[in-house]
Design brief:
disordered N terminus, 322 residues, globular, mainly beta, 36% strand, 5-stranded antiparallel β-sheet
């Protein structure tokens, strides 16, 4: 067969096409661009930014800043629990996860942004390093990063406080693990007035991980009563000042494994939670920058972060309004 010379513009077009095809796998490898990782919430739970976050160790307590450009969560390894984070860069990609400036020495967990994004509330074993003495702390945003941790004075030294969530007026919801109950703390002039939530919520087995909506119109929490699996997520609505009987969120959010740590974005569209449903053997790459992670053996059925849309909230609420 005779050689055929192609026109130069056709050769140039073929060369460009070849370059684009070579770049495509790299783009697919890092799809998490833009605020909130660029995800579109769906009704079926999906792993949250697995290329960045998912690993063989335990991840839970995910919280975005209100603008969706920062994401903080807990990384739990056998030696300790760290508050870790990733942030959106100027090119809309996200940084590799690393330990937050206010974490790394003591066992720290449960980060949640305040509704205005200027504080992160979290639980910590500091200064004793003993989880039995966990208390609620916060850090405040400054011009140069996060300030020094400040303890929120809520209960006595004997109580172990976990998982703080706030309303727009500063009312704080949290749980005391040893008592298995959820509380609310209303700010007054210089202190918090702490009260136990009604029996309709706290009745039964251990309750915890309370996420209160900023308008205080619903509460999602972790519980074990009539659960599908090891532990499930439940919702109760504040209607005309009265809380409804808690309802299991059901499948597909709850599973035969363990679900915990609910969180809803400030725009009310994205639901993030932790689940042990993964049966995939995961790689350590997303956590390579974090100290000691390489010492952890690969495994699965630990907790990972998932997301769905929040459509289920209004659907479940509507039943109480009809």
């Amino acid at each position: 067969m005779n050689n055929v010379k192609l026109p130069i513009f056709i050769l140039f077009a073929l060369l460009l096409l070849s370059c684009k095809q070579e770049q495509k796998p790299e783009l697919e490898k890092n799809p998490n661009n833009g605020p909130f990782f660029g995800i579109v919430p769906t009704e079926q739970p999906q792993l949250l930014a697995p290329e960045l976050l998912t690993s063989p160790v335990t991840e839970y307590n995910g919280t975005f800043s209100p603008d969706g450009k920062e994401f903080y969560y807990t990384t739990d390894v056998p030696q300790n629990a760290y508050i870790t984070f990733t942030e959106m860069l100027s090119d809309s990609t996200w940084s590799e996860p690393k330990i937050a400036s206010f974490s790394g020495e003591f066992s720290d967990y449960d980060p949640l942004f305040s509704p205005d994004g200027n504080r992160i509330y979290f639980s910590s074993s500091r200064p004793k390093g003993d989880n039995e003495n966990s208390k609620i702390w916060y850090v405040e945003r400054t011009d140069t990063g996060w300030g020094e941790p400040i303890r929120v004075m809520l209960t006595g030294e004997e109580d172990n406080e976990f998982y703080s969530s706030l309303t727009h007026d500063g009312t704080l919801y949290f749980n005391i693990w040893s008592k298995g109950d959820i509380y609310k703390a209303t700010p007054t002039d210089s202190i918090y007035q702490v009260e136990l939530l009604p029996e309709i919520i706290n009745d039964g087995g251990d309750k915890g991980d309370p996420f209160i909506s900023p308008n205080e119109d619903y509460l999602i929490f972790r519980g074990y009563d009539d659960s599908i699996g090891r532990g499930d997520l439940y919702i109760t609505f504040n209607i005309n000042g009265e809380w409804t009987s808690p309802e299991n969120l059901g499948e597909p959010i709850n599973s035969e494994t363990h679900e915990m740590c609910p969180w809803v974005s400030q725009d009310g569209k994205l639901f993030v939670f932790a689940s042990g449903r993964s049966t995939e053997k995961l790689q350590t790459a997303p956590l390579d920058p974090i100290k000691k992670v390489q010492e952890v053996n690969s495994s699965y059925n630990n907790l990972n972060l998932y997301y769905t849309s929040t459509d289920f909230i209004q659907k479940m609420k509507q039943k109480h309004l009809d």
